[in-house]
C-alpha cells in the first residue's frame, strides 16, 4: 500500500502502481467523477478521504499482524473494514484448521524493493509462509478487485524473486469493504502471476516509449526524473 521513492544508484525508479495506472482505462474514473459533480460533491475531496481511509486500514492491519499497539479507529468506514480484516486474519492465521496443522510464519510486511533487471519499484503488503508455501497477500479497500491486480501481483512476485531469491507459490487478494458488503477474496496461482508479470513487462516498456514520445512535444521532466532502460 505505502508509496514512496524507489531509487537505484541514486536515480528514481517508477513504482509498480504508477506504471500500471498510466495505462489503465480511465472510463470508469471519469464517470465516477462526473457522478460526484452531479451529486454536488467535489470528487477530489471524496478521493482524498477514501485514500486516507485506505491508508488507515492498511496501517491498522499491519499493526494487528505485528502485535503493535494502535488506537482504535473512529471513522465508521475504517471501523467496518478493520473489523472484517480482524475476523478474516484470526481465522486465516490459525495453526490448526479442521484438525490439520499448519506451519505459519510471517516473513515480512510492507517491504520496499526495486528491480535491477527491469528498473521499477514496489512495496507489497505481506508475505507469509504457510505449510511450506510462500504466499503473497495484498489488501484492497476499493469497490472491487480489478483486472490490473494480476499484473501488480506478478510484478511484486518478480521483485521478491530478485530480492529474496524464491518464487511466490500464490497470491491472495483480500478486499476489505468500507460498507456492510461481504469481504472478498481472490487467489492467483504461480501460473497466473507469470501471466501478470508478462503483461506488466509490456507496461514497463510502454512507459519508456511514452517518455520518448513526450520529448517530441514538450520538455519531458519525467524522462529525466526516472530511470529508463
Notable features of this structure?
single chain; five-stranded mixed sheet; Trna Endonuclease, Chain: A, domain 1; two-stranded antiparallel ribbon; alpha+beta; 21% strand; 229 residues
Chart the SSEs and their pairings.
Elements: E1 6-8, E2 11-13, H1 16-23, H2 27-38, H3 43-66, H4 76-92, E3 96-97, E4 100-101, E5 104-109, E6 113-115, E7 120-122, E8 126-130, E9 133-140, H5 149-164, E10 170-175, E11 184-189, H6 190-215, H7 221-225
Helix pairs in contact: 1-6, 3-4, 5-6
Concise account of the structure shown:
This protein has 229 residues and is an alpha+beta fold. The protein has helices at residues 16-23, 27-38, 43-66, 76-92, 149-164, 190-215, 221-225, and strands spanning 6-8, 11-13, 96-97, 100-101, 104-109, 113-115, 120-122, 126-130, 133-140, 170-175, 184-189.
Written description of the protein model:
The structure is a single chain. With 229 residues, this protein is α+β, with helices and mostly antiparallel strands. It has a single domain, classed as Trna Endonuclease, Chain: A, domain 1 (3-Layer(aba) Sandwich), CATH 3.40.1350.10. It is built from 7 helices and 11 strands. The strands form 4 sheets. A 5-stranded mixed sheet has the order 5-8-9-10-11. Strands 1-2 form a two-stranded antiparallel sheet. A hairpin with a 2-residue loop joins strand 1 and strand 2. Helix 1 crosses helix 6, helix 3 runs parallel beside helix 4 and helix 5 packs across helix 6. The protein starts with 5 loop residues before the first strand and ends with a helix. About 8% of the residues have low confidence.
Amino acid at each position: 500500500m505505502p508509496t514512496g521513492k524507489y531509487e537505484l544508484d541514486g536515480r528514481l525508479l517508477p513504482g509498480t502502481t504508477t506504471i500500471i495506472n498510466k495505462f489503465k482505462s480511465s472510463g470508469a474514473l471519469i464517470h465516477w467523477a462526473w457522478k460526484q459533480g452531479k451529486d454536488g460533491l467535489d470528487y477530489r475531496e471524496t478521493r482524498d478521504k477514501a485514500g486516507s481511509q485506505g491508508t488507515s486500514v492498511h496501517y491498522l492491519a499491519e499493526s494487528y499482524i505485528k502485535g503493535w499497539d494502535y488506537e482504535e479507529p473512529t471513522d465508521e468506514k475504517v471501523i467496518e473494514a478493520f473489523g472484517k480484516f480482524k475476523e478474516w486474519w484470526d481465522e486465516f492465521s490459525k495453526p490448526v484448521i479442521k484438525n490439520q496443522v499448519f506451519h505459519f510464519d510471517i516473513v515480512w510486511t510492507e517491504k520496499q524493493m526495486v528491480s535491477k533487471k527491469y528498473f521499477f519499484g514496489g512495496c507489497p503488503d505481506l508475505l507469509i509462509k504457510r505449510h511450506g508455501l510462500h504466499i503473497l497477500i495484498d489488501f484492497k479497500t476499493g469497490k472491487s478487485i480489478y483486472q490490473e491486480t494480476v499484473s501488480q501481483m506478478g510484478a511484486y512476485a518478480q521483485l521478491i524473486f530478485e530480492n529474496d531469491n524464491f518464487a511466490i507459490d500464490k497470491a491472495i487478494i483480500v478486499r476489505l469493504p468500507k460498507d456492510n458488503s461481504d469481504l472478498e477474496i481472490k487467489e492467483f496461482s504461480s501460473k497466473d502471476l507469470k501471466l501478470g508479470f508478462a503483461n506488466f513487462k509490456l507496461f514497463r516498456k510502454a512507459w519508456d516509449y511514452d517518455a520518448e514520445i513526450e520529448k517530441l512535444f514538450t520538455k519531458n521532466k519525467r524522462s529525466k526524473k526516472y530511470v529508463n532502460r
